[in-house]
Specification:
The structure holds two protein chains of two kinds. Chain A is α/β, with parallel strands linked by helices. Chain A is 36% helix and 21% strand. Chain A has helices at residues 14-27, 80-83, 116-122, 130-140, 146-156, 161-178, and strands spanning 2-9, 31-37, 46-54, 69-72, 91-95, 110-114. In chain A, β2 and β3 (46-54) form a beta hairpin. Chain A is globular, with a radius of gyration of 15 Å. Chain A starts with a strand and ends with a helix. Chain B has two domains: 3-249, Rossmann fold; 257-386, Rossmann fold (3-Layer(aba) Sandwich). Helices cover 40% and strands 19% of the residues of chain B. Chain B is built from 14 helices and 16 strands. Chain B has helices at residues 15-26, 40-51, 65-77, 89-93, 95-103, 128-131, 146-163, 188-194, 218-233, 235-250, 275-288, 306-313, 333-342, 365-375; strands at 3-4, 8-14, 30-32, 58-60, 83-87, 109-114, 139-142, 167-172, 180-186, 257-260, 267-271, 293-298, 300-302, 318-323, 350-355, 385-386. In chain B, β1 (3-4) and β2 (8-14) form a beta hairpin. The longest helix of chain B is centred in the middle third of the chain and has 18 residues, at 146-163. The termini of chain B are far apart. Classes of the chains: A alpha/beta, B alpha/beta. The interface between A and B is medium-sized, with 24 and 28 residues.
């Protein structure tokens, strides 16, 4: 079973991204479970979206203790309380203007920074980074396929469908070329 | 949408939206509803169905849950099929009228999303809200997954209408209510065959000029309780036959209790609601270690299937009751109910009550597995024990 955490702040789109990623796995025929934890969340408070993916029905109904992959919407969230749910095998994609080396002080993690803000702006998406971050994230995972991810984004994005898909592809290629 | 056939469609739905799909298929006439976190998505989806012309029910939005339940009772007495949904403070505000609904023998179906009552304020999965309504005369069923919630809310109408008792179905906040998963949605034809239109035995209408609610003498009130007792006595059998009939048409059968790997079990967990799924994983892991663990899931809590619980646990050396609720001054409510059900039974298990997940704290499979080491050979205490 694959266990994934998406970390963000209320209003950034982490829960939407979690639902879109789960939908991509679902469309590829996998069993998924996704849920968000929030406490009457307000804009700016940390939120986490949890996703489990398996080839059989998911029975666990508890928090994810160790994630095999994490997508982080904000590099200020990459601190102890979240990193204790990662280990040296965990893939971490983080929205940041900083370089990979800048995160080496956090410990022995596989961290891939991506400048989601720049990619969003390049594609006329303003500050809305979730499609770009999903593209970058999918580039580090063996599943789902980028085409499935783009189809889900095209279908579910409430506006600027083409721009969302373009941001997803640009971030995907950016990470693919850097691995 | 992944797969569609004549009898079902597979959708990606949250637990709450799965309930709304089930309700739509059950075709209620009236649904008085008041929003409350984390129930609100049920109300929102029903409103969406209605605005799209897919649900013909009259949706009422009164000023409180107390008024919503009053409207449910009135509508039900006119012979309408009635649904409502609530949570936490909402079900607690309804309390007075929950007694009235069962006394008036109204087969209302209510969905309750289990959430901590205030104070302190919280939004977390905890079953105290509905368990503290256990003496109100409502049938209570607990679901562990979005699929089971859809399946059970449809069955609940058939159960309620066959015994004229109000029925609540409950699932835990977030771990079920907001968990988005594959759900098989059966076709309207399948559900309409399983649950035909409601044919009330008594209904108020302006043509006949009957009324309901006149005061009665002591003997009549006493007799009304005995009639409730008779109706309750038939519920377990109806829950079993209804769950089996559902299994015949969907391949997903249900009963009042579910036995998971209990045949040769030396230690049996007893659970309700979302923790059941996690406990299944813990039981499998223990079995791989050579420990004969099993699980007894209590799906029907009221009426408590006491005789079946005794049969399920006779000869089992040790039973661990997991409670996601706490009754101050007493302990876990399911623990208390089990002690009562097994009282005086020869060859009863050593019964440990564990307060696991109270207030929604996380209960991973590792902690459930650890309980075997902690409790299997220990002498049980009368009190429930807090999970470390």
């Amino acid at each position: 079973m694959r266990e994934i955490l998406i970390l963000g702040r209320g209003g950034q789109g982490a829960q939407t991204a979690g639902n879109q990623l789960a939908r991509a796995y679902f469309d590829e025929g996998q069993y998924v479970q996704t849920f968000a934890t929030y406490g009457g969340a307000r804009r700016g408070t940390p939120v986490a979206s949890s996703i489990r993916v398996d080839d059989q029905p998911v029975r666990l109904r508890c928090d994810i203790e160790y994630a095999s992959a994490m997508l982080c919407f904000d590099d200020t969230l990459l601190e102890e309380s979240f990193l204790r749910r990662a280990n040296e095998k965990t893939l971490i994609v983080v929205n940041s203007t900083r370089s990979r080396e800048a995160f080496s002080g956090l410990g022995d993690y596989r961290i891939y920074p991506v400048n989601g803000k720049d990619i969003a702006r390049n594609n006329d998406m303003g500050k809305v980074v979730n499609s770009a971050l999903l593209g970058a994230f999918v580039a580090t995972l063996d599943k789902p396929d980028i085409e499935t991810m783009c189809e889900v984004i095209e279908e579910t994005a409430p506006a600027k469908k083409e721009q969302n898909v373009a941001a997803c592809r640009e971030a995907y290629l950016h990470i693919r070329n850097s691995i | 949408m992944l797969e569609k056939s004549n009898t079902r469609t597979r959708l990606l739905l949250s637990g709450n939206h799965a309930v709304s799909w089930g309700v739509k298929l059950a075709r209620p006439h009236v649904a008085p509803l008041y929003p409350i976190t984390p129930q609100t998505p049920i109300l929102e989806k029903l409103t969406e169905f209605q605005s799209q012309g897919e649900l013909s029910a009259e949706l009422l939005t009164p000023e409180s849950e107390h008024s919503a339940m009053a409207a449910c009772i009135s509508a039900s007495l006119t012979g309408a099929r009635v649904f409502t949904a609530t949570s936490s403070q909402g079900i607690l505000l309804m309390h007075e009228l929950l007694h009235y609904a069962s006394g008036a023998r109204t087969p209302i179906v209510m969905f309750n999303v289990n959430r901590t009552p205030g104070s302190p304020w919280g939004f977390w999965p905890d079953q105290l809200d509905s368990l503290s309504q256990r003496d109100t005369g409502w049938i209570q069923l607990y679901s562990e997954s979005p699929q089971e919630s859809l399946d059970t809310v449809i069955q609940a109408f058939r159960i309620a209408e066959s015994v004229n008792l109000p029925t609540m179905v409950c699932h835990d906040a977030f771990y079920v209510s907001h968990s988005v998963e594959q759900v098989e949605v059966p076709s309207q034809d399948l559900v309409s065959n399983f649950l035909p239109d409601y044919k009330p035995t008594i209904s108020l209408n302006t043509d006949t000029g009957r009324s309901f609610g006149a005061p009665v003498d002591q003997v009549t009130w006493n007799r009304s309780r005995q009639e409730l007792a008779e109706a309750m006595a038939g519920v377990e059998g109806i829950v079993n036959s209804t769950g089996k009939a559902w299994g015949d048409v969907t391949s997903r059968g249900y009963g009042a209790l579910e036995h998971y790997k209990t045949d040769d079990a030396e230690v049996v967990y007893v659970t309700m609601g979302s923790m059941t799924g996690t406990t299944r994983v813990a039981v499998d892991a223990l079995r791989e270690q050579g420990i004969a663990a099993g699980l007894l899931k209590v799906r029907l809590f009221r009426p408590l299937p006491a005789r079946s619980l005794r049969e399920a646990l006779v000869g089992v050396p040790c039973a661990l009751v997991l409670d996601r609720n706490y009754s101050p001054g007493m302990g876990g409510i399911l623990h208390q109910e089990l002690k009562s059900a097994l009282f005086g039974m020869p060859d009863a298990p050593k019964l440990h009550g564990i307060l696991a997940g109270v207030g929604g704290v996380n209960v991973p499979p590792s902690k459930i597995q650890q309980m075997v080491t902690d409790f299997k050979d220990a002498e049980p205490s009368v009190e429930s024990v807090w999970m470390e």
